Amino acid sequence: MQVRGSAAPQDPYRGLDPGVCIGVDEVGRGSVFGPVFAAAVQLPAAAHTRLAAAGLTDSKQLSAKRRQALVPKIEQWASGWSLGQASAAEIDRFGIRRATELAMLRALQRRPWRPELLIVDGNLPLRLWAGPQCTLVAGDRHCLAIAAASVIAKQARDGLITRLAALYPGFGLERHAGYGTAQHRQALLQLGLTPLHRRSFLKSWTAASRPGTP
């Protein structure tokens, strides 16, 4: 694996044509329920101006309505995009970093070609990737391909969690997307774990619910 180091925010594409690069990002890493998602997005140079004008940025800084409006624009103007995920069971078995890498790799494996440069959000390289790559801290603010990946992944994961909320009522999944809110913790203490909860994330919570535990 060739790791080219952290990219500079001024030029996340390292002097390459953006169209030969792919940005990858994950969502749901800190959730206690459901899979972790990743998206890989290839943006040609012409798409950058359009998506920047449309307000594309870090998905965490966008409302659900804004993200929803951006998804068809990204799908229209991107050269290609794909999704991958790793299940709660895989997170418990392999740990969150390895599971996140599996989700990213699965997204990349759905692309029909290998990029000249893979740009990974954060400071940890994708260890499963054999091609050239670089990491970019806060990449969803400095690289539009990563920002697009964050929006695509966020909308896809939120949509899945909303559908799962109907199968697992009482947890409020449609409101907190599986993150460890006070409401979610209270529901866990009352209802117990579902098959899609990440048990490795919830050891302290489940211990607190046992009789005689202070």
Layout of secondary structure:
Blueprint: E1 3-6, E2 21-27, E3 36-42, H1 45-53, H2 64-77, E4 80-86, H3 88-94, H4 96-109, E5 117-121, E6 133-136, H5 139-142, H6 144-167, H7 173-176, H8 182-191, H9 203-208
What would you note in describing this structure?
- This protein is an alpha/beta fold and 214 residues long.
- The protein has a single domain, classed as Ribonuclease H-like superfamily/Ribonuclease H (Nucleotidyltransferase, domain 5).
- The chain has helices at residues 45-53, 64-77, 88-94, 96-109, 139-142, 144-167, 173-176, 182-191, 203-208; strands spanning 3-6, 21-27, 36-42, 80-86, 117-121, 133-136.
- The chain has a 6-stranded mixed sheet with strand order 1-6-5-2-3-4.
- Helix 1 (45-53) runs antiparallel to helix 2 (64-77) and helix 2 (64-77) packs across helix 6.
- The protein is globular, with a radius of gyration of 18 Å.
- Residues 207-214 have low confidence and may be disordered.
